[in-house]
Amino acid sequence: MRAMLSAFVSLTGFVGATVLPASAQPVAEFYKGRHMDLTISGSAGGGYDQYARILVKHMPRHIPGEPSLTVKNMVGAEGIKAANFLYGIAPRDGSTMGGLQRNAALVLLYDPTNTAVQYQAREFNWIGTPQQEVGMMIVSARKPVNTVEDLKKVELTAASTARNAPTSVYPRMLNALYGAKFKVIEGYEGSQTGLLAIERGEVDAYVSGGSSAPLRARYEPWLKDGTARLVMQMGMTRDRAYPDAPTAIEAMTDPAAKQMFQIAFTEQVMGRPFLFPPKVPAERVKAFRDAFDATMKDEQFLADAKSQKVEIDPVSGADIAALLERVYATPPDVVAKLRELVK
After folding, report:
1. Listing from the earlier edge strand, what are the strands of the sheet with 228-234?
2. For residue range 248-270, what is the model confidence (pLDDT) as tens digits?
3. φ, ψ (nearest 5 deg) of residue 206
């Protein structure tokens, strides 16, 4: 590297106190003194919002030029509103970053005719996610549901944001593949309002797509005092904090049903993904991916996350992009079965 820099100096005649590699120089110049928006699809106070705010606090010092970032909430249609904005309206120069619900990337896989979706998930430049997720099925103790077998016997109402959200998709998949008896009530703003609905007696259950610190802070006292029960987990593996509650995949006895849930839980691996719009210059995408990866190992960031009880289990942007390519290459007959289940 030192020889390369010497050659560069010799060829250009440039001599200075600090010499950056040619590929990094324009990135640092572009971001120096720049103010950036981080447009996220989650509501204020929720898990997505919490992860975004801790990220903007620590990530800038790892970005060349050290720009500042401000979180802007753009709630609507379970992430579709923000995704459409980031895909079709936001600048494509790397001056705007985004954060979406984990399921936004699979909407068109489930329903390719969805006219509300004006984006292609694989064309986003994925930066990374700080956390892989496991969802939780929280059931009020007012209902006699203690085991997964009881889901086949007792009718339950469940709060959800929208039909394409995990809070609606997972209960409906359980109805079709396991024989559960959920009636989903859609239209709630987010996880906090969904849990409030349980507290008020409006619904019996909430089947989350994740388990953020704010979500855990709300339901864990219920688990301790018996107000509610954790009946099932929605993810590839069990959350280590709840080793006794089975996952939906474990509950399935039919191999085809297991496969359906494995595809559906792909979004759990995506966790709380951050991204750039399409066609952002490659060197700026790389700079942000590198900055994100560095932030995930930053001692100050990790200490801050621990103090806020924010779980950190990152996945890189490159791995997210590769995961989506594999998912969208799923055999058509398997995808067709899944579409029938979730529509």
Report:
1. 182-186, 156-160, 205-207, 135-140, 228-234
2. 999 999 988 988 898 898 888 89
3. -140, 125
